[in-house]
Amino acid sequence: MPTQHLTGGRIRDRRLELGLRQAAVAAAVGISPSYLNLIEHNRRRIGGKLLADIARLLEVDATLLTQGADRHLLERMRGAAAAFETDAEIARAEDIAARFPGWSALIVAQARRIAALDTHMAALTDRITHDPQLANALHEVISTVTSIRSSASILVTQEELDADWQRRFHENIHKDSLRLAASSEALVAYLETPEADVDIVQSPVEQLESALARTGYHVAALEAGNADVAQVARDLGLKGPATVLFASFAKQYMADARVLPLATFTEACRALDYNPAQLAGEFGADFAAVLRRLASLPADTSLPAMGLAIADVSGTLTFLKPVPGFNYSRRNGACPLWPIFGALSRPTQPVRAEVSLPDAARTRFLCYAIAQPQGAQQFDVTPVLNSTMLVVADPPESKANAIAVGGSCRICPRPDCTSRREPALIGISGARGL
């Protein structure tokens, strides 16, 4: 169902929320109550000055009445429901996000925090099971406790001990107690997670992507091609394994910047309407490098919103720059119908395809993808493929048939999809217009 058809319901919900009578609203905007009633029941279209007048009266932005909730927020709410396998009314997520964006953002933040803590707990569990240093520390504590218990039991059960033996056992207990205190403190310090250390609950990949998101995925310090990568990583707040990932990212970023200098590449992008194939020919550059470079351009009002995804041959997303409507949780798995995965079946062949999401607005993206082998090719060695996909939001109208894609199967309302891995959550099949 087109978004326009939902406008009347949003008007009615907002009016009731403010406690306004239908007749009063109709009189204020100069229409009859019966006509407003038809609008609120989606039986009359609305737009232009009348829509603006009603939005002003209801103290809400007109776009919220026509388009509903912020698509990015809505996508994250649906992702939160899918991640935790709840019986939430997913079909009503848009209404909730539009009417209560603050509460919706809180729900998303809590879901993200829970997911981060789950990841942290899994890491600690793995650490307890396999960490040799932790095993040695626990063995030290247990051995010391056993020694103290043994000495204490002799003192308790032996009624007649001369003073010299009593002194020896007391000294042993004292030394073992000091050793136990030291080993226990070391164990606690080893296990302790500082409360202020937020990144501890993020994987290294998540830390890297969070840092890049703060820069808009354009790292100005790397543009010259000769940056101190370690210093740039520190400036971005990265540490530990995330710095190793950043070093690999920075090497690729600087290589792309040398082949496709920012100023000349940006000028060519505007002249060639951001067409990756023409840009690759213009600069004699690798197609995947052009896709990465387009996604790293600095934010500009004239620049179309572009997301980027990179996946290995297993289908695992190794890098993701989201845009509203295109933002996947690695925990749930991405829809296999996206061109990034189709490109893996035809390596080195550039792919261009339009895709359509199953939301009320029928959101469309223009996707460019290519799968390429990594590293030097050798005899009798299976090549390692990486697939890169650029996602361009809000492409111009086209007559081309769009590929019907979705998000996670748990929240995808397409009932007859042949690629479905698992049933959708309860209630989503009743979503109106999907």
UniProtKB/TrEMBL annotation:
SUPFAM superfamilies: lambda repressor-like DNA-binding domains (SSF47413). GO terms for molecular function: DNA binding. Pfam families: HTH_3 (PF01381), ScfRs (PF09856). SMART domains: HTH_XRE. Residues 11-65 form the HTH cro/C1-type domain. InterPro entries: Cro/C1-type_HTH, Lambda_DNA-bd_dom_sf, ScfR_C. Signal peptide: none annotated. This is HTH cro/C1-type domain-containing protein.
